[in-house]
Amino acid sequence: MIHLSEEQLQIIRIHAQKTYPEECCGILLGHLSDGGKTVVKVMSTENVWEGDTTADFPGDRQEYSKRRRYAIAPQVMLQAQKQARAQNMEIVGFYHSHPDYQAIPSEFDRLYAWPKYSYIIVAVENGISTNVNSWCLDATDLFQPEKICNLGEKL
Ligand SMILES: [Zn+2]
Predict the structure, then answer these.
(1) How far does residue 3's CA lie from ligand 1's centre (Å)?
(2) Residue 58 alpha carbon to ligand 1 centre in Å
(3) How does the average pLDDT of the chain come out, rounded?
(4) What distance in angstroms lies between residue 42's CA and the mean position of ligand 1's atoms?
(5) Interior angle at CA 33, CA 29 and CA 36, nearest 5
(6) Quick check: pTM over 0.70?
(7) What pLDDT shows up at residue 56?
(8) Handedness of CA 87, 115, 135, 110 (dihedral sign)
(9) For residue 54, how far is the Cα from the chain centroid?
(10) DSSP letter for each residue of 56-104
(11) C-alpha 127 – ligand 1 centre gap (Å)
(12) CA 154 to ligand 1 center in whole angstroms
């Protein structure tokens, strides 16, 4: 389970709508506990995917552009790690958007995912964010859905 506030979900949705029709991405900082993960800070990052400019990919270029891929710069990852450590937090996951596609991980997402982190995906249809899902790799490296607990909700 991953805990996010309504405000944090809103930051992710707005970022996703702003970068549409390209994918947005970001890093989730927070705490791990028995009850799951708690997000404290949503760090929006730039999508630095550059696959569309290389000639390595045959076929439909859009398939490999920022509309379908995202990358976070290594130096940004390092900064996030440092910032988290300085505030007694850790990186608990990442988020990115799927423009005009469902909020389910692609094979690319799976190949580039690390265990233990949460991967939040927000679907954006025609520029408007819709479904938000969180995913975690299981022991066999397959994505399983993870419950998003909205801290604004009273149980
Ligand atoms: Zn994806």
Answers:
(1) 21
(2) 20
(3) 91
(4) 18
(5) 80
(6) yes
(7) 54
(8) positive
(9) 24
(10) ---S-GGGGSTTT-----HHHHHHHHHHHHHTT-EEEEEEEEEETS-SS
(11) 16
(12) 31
| Residue 61, φ and ψ in degrees, nearest 5 | -65, -35
Residue with tokens 């990358």: 71
Radius of gyration from C-alpha coordinates of the chain: 15
pLDDT of residue 13: 98
Domains, the chain, ordered by start: 2-150 (3.40.140.10)
Tokens of 128: 């408007």
Residue type, 46: E
Q: What are phi and psi of 98, to 5 degrees?
A: -120, 95
Q: What is the per-residue pLDDT for 154? A: 47
Q: Are 29 and 94 in contact (CB under 8 A)?
A: no
Q: Which two tokens stand for residue 61?
A: 């270029």
Distance, CA 137 to ligand 1 centroid (Å)?
14
Residue found by looking up tokens 């490296």 in the block:
141
Please say if the pLDDT value at position 96 is more than 80. Answer: yes
pLDDT of residue 126: 97
